[in-house]
Amino acid sequence: DGGITQSPKYLFRKEGQNVTLSCEQNLNHDAMYWYRQDPGQGLRLIYYSQIVNDFQKGDIAEGYSVSREKKESFPLTVTSAQKNPTAFYLCASSIGQGVTDTQYFGPGTRLTVL
Amino acid sequence: GQNIDQPTEMTATEGAIVQINCTYQTSGFNGLFWYQQHAGEAPTFLSYNVLDGLEEKGRFSSFLSRSKGYSYLLLKELQMKDSASYLCAAMDSNYQLIWGAGTKLIIKP
After folding, report:
1. What's the distance, Cα to Cα, between the start and end of chain A in Å?
2. Are A42 and B40 inside 8 Å of each other by CB?
3. Per-residue pLDDT tens for A8-41?
4. What mean pLDDT, rounded, does chain A reach?
């Protein structure tokens, strides 16, 4: 089955700790994205990557970091510099970026910082 | 600035028809997407419009007017499983999606 996986579904961390959220896809998609979803707001783009070893900041990149060492994987690290990290994090992928391709989403990770 | 507006919440009756509206303002335009999102789950793709007019896909239809910056999602023969949030997203000239906050649709028996 082709798809996007994110793990874990729920994650709890203490304030001041860095945490890494995983995202894997086996759709052979070139482009991958990280979004943050908060109640009452639209999805906000954190980072995106069009190709391996390249990524771009989105609208709210401060306090986050990513890597794209493999086509299938696009992990997101939420650092202690992110002032309000508690949120629902969604990873998505599409065939390419720069064309009107549909983005497909993983199941999401709900991060709670205590 | 770029902006998407859609109603926060709507209520409809099982078996009825409901129309969810979305207006958008973006820097350039490369199409309008609708997604469905059940609580706590991932958004799933419903439709994509780039040309004016109505696209029908089973019980769901989506309409676009580029001149008015307006789209709607029409859901017919509503079922209880249609209770979800419906997200409108417009693609700008940089092929980035600008998302609305979503419309929570409540279906009553």
Report:
1. 36
2. no
3. 999 999 988 999 999 999 999 999 999 999 988 8
4. 93
- Cβ atoms B52, B66 nearer than 8 A: yes
The CB density around residue A106, as the number of other CB atoms within 10 Å, is 22
CB-CB neighbors (< 8 A) of B8 in chain A: 40
Q: Round to whole Å and give the CA distance between B22 and A74.
A: 31
| Contact between residue A78 and residue A111 where contact means Cβ atoms under 8 Å apart | yes
pLDDT band at A96 (very low <50, low <70, confident <90, very high): confident
pLDDT digits (tens, 9 = 90+) for B39-97: 999 999 999 999 999 999 999 999 999 999 999 999 999 999 999 999 999 999 988 99
Q: Answer whether B97 sits within 8 Å of A103, measured CB to CB.
A: yes
> What is the Cα–Cα distance from B9 to A109, expressed in whole angstroms?
25
Q: Which residues pair with A5 in a beta bridge?
A: A24
B66 contact residues in A (CB cutoff 8 A): none
CA gap A104, B33 in Å, rounded? 12
Q: Which residues of B fall below an 8 Å CB-CB distance to A?
A: 4, 8, 30-31, 33, 40-45, 48, 50, 87, 89, 91, 95-102
CB contact under 8 Å between A43 and B99, yes or no, is yes
Least confident of A74-78, A100-104, B45-49, B70-74: A100-104
